[in-house]
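Lab notebook: predicted structure, single chain.

Context: the supervisor wants predicted structures on file for every construct in the current expression panel, including those that have not yet been purified. This is the next one on the list. No modifications to the sequence; it matches the entry in the shared construct table.
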Amino acid sequence: MSKVPMTKEGSQKLRAELEKLKTVSRPRIIAAIAEAREHGDLKENAEYHAAREEQGFAEGRIKEIESKLSNAQVIDVMQIDNTGKVIFGVTVEIENVNTGKATTYRIVGEDEADLKELKISITSPIARALIGKMEGDLVQVQVPDGLVEYEIIEVQHI
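Prediction complete. Output recorded below exactly as produced.
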């Protein structure tokens, strides 16, 4: 399997979630299962079944995070010189040539993308069009409404 790009912050966030699952959630769930077992008949014990279901979700998430981290290529954009070129992990300000509206996006891994935080996935149409371009370049992006042209205003390594 090939490596998947991930920002340093994305990696840290996953590691923190993994640590919490292993040190807080897992012991709490094990204790809940033990307590439910003490109540007797497991067939009709809703607390036991709920705790076992929660355990399945937690263990599944632990495996998922461990897999993502093992396949991640963590990129710290702060360690890379800013040449004005759009690369993975940068924050890029673009302006719609037709409307004059400026927007700032951070290009991140697929698991980190969150449009509310203006973080777009490396695989998104806008990011794919921007990657490899320089400040001042014009970029055309195919969107549902047609072709939109953007100018790259600024590339930041933050």
